Amino acid sequence: MTLEEKVKLAQDPSTSAEVLEKLSEDEDCKVRWRVAESPNTSSLVLEKLSRDESWVVRWRVAENPNTPSLVLDKLGEDEDECCRSSVTKNPKVSIALLERLSRDENRDIRISAGQNPKNFRVREMVKVSLKNNLHINYVNTSGLDVGWLWDWEVDFFKINRKED
Q: Which of 16, 66, 70, 153 has the greatest number of beta carbons closer than 10 A?
């Protein structure tokens, strides 16, 4: 089977989990990342692909809505920023992981984690607005410690505590 045929097979929505499992062992990462994208890929195969040497394959596992939460927890610590960012958008991501990624060293990951609707503690308590692509204003914190987001920009913080 040619590379193009294997990629098409992995992309085909009617391809079975068994065939996808075999394709997940292909030497070409283009085939493996198509398997990682498939809604028919089993949890076990997604877990295996989450340890793939290719960041693109791990990134696609992080995006797959069928990826188990425990696998997402591991991908939330991935060295690749695209993987961690995709974890913040996955519907199965845990609130605990979102809160941890809200403290990520990468600004875009912190913002993405804070914008996830599941992350109500950050989303409801902290309204993030970017200005000049550099500084963030925090409003309505209700006592939530947000210093971890931009502690190096303390001079730019504006924290308004909600009065109950």
A: 66
**Tens digit of each residue's pLDDT (9 = 90 or more) over 87-134:** 999 999 998 898 888 888 888 888 888 888 776 655 544 444 333 343
SS3 category, 37: helix
Instruction: Please tell me the distance from the alpha carbon of residue 141 to that of residue 160, in angstroms, as a whole number.
Output: 7
The 3-class SS string of 119-142 reads CHHHHHHCCCEEECCCEEEEECCC
What the block records as the tokens of 88 is 């913040």
pTM for this model (two decimals): 0.72
Hey, what amino acid is at 29? C
Asked if 102 and 118 touch (Cβ cutoff 8 Å), the reply is no
